[in-house]
Write a structure and sequence with these properties.
Chain A: It is found in: Cell membrane; Membrane. Chain A: GO terms for molecular function: proton-transporting ATP synthase activity, rotational mechanism. Chain A: Keywords: ATP synthesis, Cell membrane, CF(0), Hydrogen ion transport, Ion transport, Membrane, Transmembrane, Transmembrane helix, Transport. The complex is a heterodimer of chains A (260) and B (168). Chain A is globular, with a radius of gyration of 21 Å. In chain A, helix 1 crosses helix 2 (53-72) and helix 3 packs antiparallel against helix 6. In chain A, strands 1-2 form a two-stranded antiparallel sheet. Chain A has 260 residues and is mainly alpha-helical. Chain A is 64% helix and 7% strand. Chain A is built from six helices and four strands. Chain B is an all-alpha fold and 168 residues long. Chain B has one domain. In chain B, helix 2 packs antiparallel against helix 3. The longest helix of chain B has 133 residues, at 11-143. The mean pLDDT of chain B is 88. The chains are: A mainly alpha (260), B mainly alpha (168). Chains A and B meet through strand 2, helix 1, helix 2, helix 3 and helix 4 of A and helix 2 of B.
Chain lengths: 260, 168
């Protein structure tokens, strides 16, 4: 019997040139469409007296502006778009993953066709595995790693932009041996950021997927999963906020002049 | 790298995700945040301006109110002085009229007195003249026959002279 279970990696649906299209990547396109569509509709006819979508857009952007300016001050104009985009992208992705049909509508493929999902020893050749068409984007490490890399590169780019190359290097390298050691630690810390940012998001959302799948297939499909859905709504929001806020804080710290 | 494989990390996918996100970031920044932030700032500016205007208007209103109060106060003072003036004028006119009337009455009284006096004198004269004529007539009648002509003439003359002396 082919059981519904959540694979650690996203399953490949088909190949597009050199690009393997996985189900989570397909969902990324959906998220992109939703975001761009919303942005287009909200700003299609901007009026002095807002109504409809423009209201929502104004509310969320204003909230972000206040949040960012309370930490970043006069750099708000540069930081806000990046931070807000992280938040919107992640939260739309997370909430899309909770929707019914995402992760549960799919088809069965021969195990060797979806070899990415295959974990050694778990599947035997010829056995069919369930491949959902859509998969929550942040339950794919590719997505979260991409986000973490962008966050880190943006942070360092802004640091160089605000401090200049020498100011940027002075944050990590110093003639003072103690500060040199601290600087080296910070370099290690920068790499750790990639791991912590990507795996935190991936772990939370993937765990949520597993939790929901288990609750609704192996335990009892009615009523029981409802509290978990509420939990996932909360987690989806909190994780998006955490990613955005951490990016913001990293940016603020790295764009401040070295105190030593 | 075995662990990356088991998580499904593929360089092409990773790159695709990065590019995808950068496109989203660019599009949102250009077509979403910019216009919305702009309209938010515009609105903020307009609200500030409106508040400033409201403040100015209120100040002006207060000034106008004060001015109005001042004007009313002034008008009241003016009215009071006008009323006072009028009262004084009226009193003066009344006084004048009263004294004039009194004078007129006095004069009329004097005139009347003198007229009455003159009339009285005239009447007295008339009365004396009539009495004299009556007496003359009575005397003529009584004395006409008995007294001689010469006597009569003498008597008459005496009487006339006496009466005329008395009358004068």
């Amino acid at each position: 019997m082919a059981e519904v279970h959540v694979a650690l990696a996203a399953e490949k649906l088909f190949q597009l040139g050199p690009l393997p299209i996985t189900n989570s990547f397909l969902t990324t396109w959906v998220v992109t469409l939703i975001l761009i569509g919303f942005a287009f509709l909200a700003t299609k006819k901007i009026e002095a007296v807002p109504k409809g979508l423009q209201n929502i857009a104004e509310f969320s952007i204003e909230a972000f502006q206040e949040l960012v300016s309370s930490i970043a001050g006069d750099k708000t104009k540069v930081f806000m778009p990046i931070v807000a985009t992280f938040f919107f992208f992640i939260i739309i992705g997370n909430y899309l993953g909770i929707l019914p049909g995402i992760g549960s509508v799919g088809f069965f493929l021969p195990a060797d066709a979806s070899h990415q999902a295959m974990q050694a020893g778990e599947l035997h050749g010829g056995e069919k595995v369930f491949v959902p068409i859509f998969r929550s984007i942040n339950s794919d490490l590719n997505t979260t790693l991409a986000l973490a890399l962008i966050s880190l590169f943006a942070t360092h780019y802004l640091s160089i932009k605000y401090l200049g190359l020498d100011g940027y290097l002075a944050k990590f390298f110093s003639l003072n041996p103690i500060f040199l050691f601290v600087g080296l630690m910070e370099i290690v810390g920068e790499f750790t950021k990639i791991l912590s940012l990507s795996f935190r998001l991936y772990g939370n959302i993937f765990a949520g997927e597993v939790l929901l799948t288990t609750a609704s297939t192996k335990v009892f499909a009615y009523i029981v999963p409802i509290p978990f859905y509420f939990l996932e709504i909360l987690v989806g929001f909190v994780q998006a906020l955490i990613f955005a806020m951490l990016t913001l804080v990293f940016m603020v710290i790295l764009t401040q002049k070295a105190s030593h | 790298m075995e662990i990356l494989k088991s998580f499904g990390i593929q360089p092409t996918l990773l790159l695709a995700q990065i590019v995808n996100f950068l496109i989203i970031l660019y599009l949102l920044k250009r077509f979403f945040y910019k216009p919305i932030v702009k309209i938010l700032e515009d609105r903020k500016k307009r609200i500030e301006e409106s508040l400033q205007n409201a403040k100015t208007i209120e100040e002006k209103l207060q000034m106008t109110e004060e001015e109005t109060k001042k004007i009313i106060e002034q008008a009241r003072a003016n009215t009071q002085s006008l009323i006072d003036d009028a009262k004084n004028e009226a009193r003066r006119i009344t006084d004048e009229a009263t004294s004039e009337g009194r004078k007129l009455i006095e004069a009329a009284k004097l005139e009347a007195k003198s007229q009455i006096e003159a009339q009285r004198i005239q009447m007295q004269r008339q009365l004396e003249k009539q009495t004299l004529n009556l007496v003359i007539t009575v005397v003529r009648k009584i004395l006409g026959k008995s007294i001689k002509n010469t006597q009569r003439q003498q008597l008459t003359a005496e009487a006339v002279s006496e009466i005329s002396r008395k009358v004068q």
